[in-house]
Write a structure and sequence with these properties.
single chain; about 325 residues; mainly beta; 4-stranded antiparallel β-sheet; 1 helix; about 0% helix; about 45% strand
C-alpha cells in the first residue's frame, strides 16, 4: 500500500455465503475497481503485495480455479493485478507474506485445520512445511515485513507464543497463562520485533482486556484502558492499530452492525499506559501502518466503503 494505491477484498451478499473479489484503488480509496481472475465464493481469497507491481493471490474453490471441482492454486502478478500467472496448483494458503520476490511465509490451507506453517524460497512456486515443536493448531498469526512472525496456539488455560525473525528458519517459544475471565485472544499485533500488544476478550461479553510486551512476546503485562468492546462479526474487525512502540489506537466498536451507537477511538502516546478518548462514527475493519499514520478500511451508516486515515499529533 502507498499513499494513493491500495488493494482490498470486496464482498457481495447477493448470493448465499457471499462472493469475494480483489479490488484496487489508485486514488487513496475514493474509487475501486475489481481485478480480473480473483473471484472466490464463500471465503475471501488470500493476497499479499510486496510493492505496487508484485503480488500473490491464493484461492481454493470453484470460481477461482474455473474447474468443476474445487481446486488449489497460487497466482502471481508483476503488474499490480492486471494479469495473473498460475505458479502452482499443488497448494493454497490462508495467510502469506513476502519479504522479497522469492522468500515468503504462510499458513497452508487444509481441511483438517492442523495449522501447518509453510515457507517458500522460489516466489511461491513451491512451499515447504515449517516444523515448529509443540505447535498443534494455529490460533492467531501476525506478520511483520515477511521476516518476523508470531503464531499462537492454545493448550488448556495457557497460550503458546512462537516467534521467528528470520522468515521461519528458527523459532522461539514462550508461554502465557490467560486469566480465567479473559480466555479468548481477539488480536495480536507488533510494530517491531520487540513491542507488541494483545487483546483478550471476556468470557461472558464483548469487553476487551489489553496486554503489552517489550521483549517480543516472552513476557506480557496488563495495560490499563477505559471500558472498550469489540464486535462479534465474522470475519472479526481489528481492535488494535499501533504505528510505533509508543503511539497507537484501540477501537471500541460497541453497536449494531454498521450503525455505530457508541463507537470511539482510544489514543495513547506512551505504549498504552494512558489513553485519550474520541468519538468515532465509523466502523473499522482492517488497519495498516504507513509512514507513521494508520490507514483503516472504514464505513458508517449511509456512506460507502473508504479509507480512514488517523494521524497522531
Amino acid at each position: 500500500m502507498t499513499r494513493s494505491e491500495a488493494w482490498g477484498i470486496g464482498l457481495s451478499f447477493e448470493t448465499s455465503g457471499g462472493d469475494y473479489v480483489l479490488v484496487h484503488s489508485v486514488d487513496a480509496g475514493k474509487t475501486w475497481r475489481e481485478l480480473p481472475d480473483t473471484h472466490q465464493y464463500a471465503v475471501p481469497p488470500t493476497f499479499s503485495f510486496l510493492d505496487a507491481a508484485h503480488g500473490w493471490l491464493s484461492c481454493w474453490n470453484v470460481p477461482c480455479t474455473q474447474k468443476v471441482v474445487p481446486g488449489l492454486e497460487v497466482r502471481r502478478t508483476t503488474d499490480g493485478g492486471k494479469n495473473w500467472e498460475v505458479i502452482t496448483e499443488q497448494t493454497a494458503t490462508v495467510f502469506m507474506a513476502f519479504s522479497d520476490k522469492e522468500h515468503g511465509i504462510g499458513q497452508e490451507f487444509g481441511v483438517d485445520d492442523t495449522g501447518t506453517m509453510v515457507r517458500t524460497a522460489d516466489g511461491g512456486r513451491s512451499w515447504s512445511k515449517i516444523e515448529i515443536p509443540h505447535l498443534t493448531k494455529i490460533d492467531h498469526i501476525f506478520n511483520l515485513g515477511g521476516q518476523a512472525c508470531w503464531v499462537t496456539d492454545r493448550e488448556g488455560s495457557d497460550l503458546l507464543i512462537f516467534r521467528t525473525i528470520d522468515g521461519g528458519l528458527s523459532w522461539d517459544e514462550s508461554r502465557l497463562t490467560l486469566p480465567l475471565d479473559w480466555p479468548e485472544v481477539g488480536q495480536i499485533s507488533f510494530t517491531d520485533s520487540d513491542h507488541g500488544w494483545m487483546v483478550l476478550q471476556h468470557k461472558q461479553d464483548l469487553q476487551v482486556h489489553l496486554l503489552g510486551t517489550t521483549d517480543g512476546g516472552r513476557h506480557w503485562k496488563t495495560l490499563p484502558i477505559p471500558m472498550a468492546e469489540r464486535t462479534d462479526w465474522v470475519p472479526p474487525s481489528d481492535t488494535l492499530g499501533f504505528v510505533s512502540a509508543k503511539v497507537g489506537f484501540l477501537f471500541s466498536t460497541a453497536g449494531n452492525g454498521w450503525d455505530p451507537q457508541h463507537h470511539k477511538a482510544l489514543f495513547t502516546t506512551d505504549g498504552g499506559e494512558r489513553w485519550l478518548e474520541y468519538p468515532l462514527p465509523y466502523t473499522i475493519s482492517k488497519c495498516q501502518t504507513l509512514n507513521g499514520e494508520l490507514l483503516c478500511s472504514a464505513d458508517k451508516k449511509g456512506t460507502h466503503f473508504g479509507i480512514l486515515t488517523l494521524r497522531p499529533r
